Amino acid sequence: MHTAAIDPPGVEWLRVSSKYVTVRLVEWAIRNVILVAVVSLPLLFVQLGWWTWPPLWFAVALPAFFVVLAVWRLALIPRQVRAIGYAERHDDLLIRRGIFFQRTMVVPYGRMQYVDVAVGPVERILGLCTVKLHTASAGTMAHLPGLPAAEGARLREQLSARGEARLAGL
């Protein structure tokens, strides 16, 4: 995994499953089919003669723009998934993500209130899950998608045990 300038030195990053690309592709397909269908309605209405505005060039350009944008986002999905990583350290969990706008989040074990493992329908088919970390701060919103289900269960137990130990002052 490529090291970003904001990454702490000497951290061994673990990657999420490459199957997570499939989850993202399904989400992408659903989102973009709906979006392109909606922005294509003016073109349909102009072709049927129901609308005289927008002009035909605009009615064609609008869905074309969204198709180009969707294809560009499609090309980024595999790289975005490869950019997601995590590392367990002695006192905290590090989570990183992002290509253009990189982010490295540090979640101290002592701040964790509970750890949640969620599974959507596509994730379930692929044997993946998402680990969500809930802390005292509402702004944390730490989540780690695309983990194999067994790793998600192990991480949930490990993080919960470490969090309880830190809260107890051990």
From TrEMBL:
It holds the Pfam family bPH_2. The keyword Transmembrane helix applies. Residues 82-159 form the YdbS-like PH domain. It comes from the Bacteria. The chain crosses the membrane at residues 28-50, 56-76. Keywords: Membrane, Transmembrane, Transmembrane helix. This is YdbS-like PH domain-containing protein. The lineage of its organism: Bacteria, Bacillati, Actinomycetota, Actinomycetes, Micrococcales.
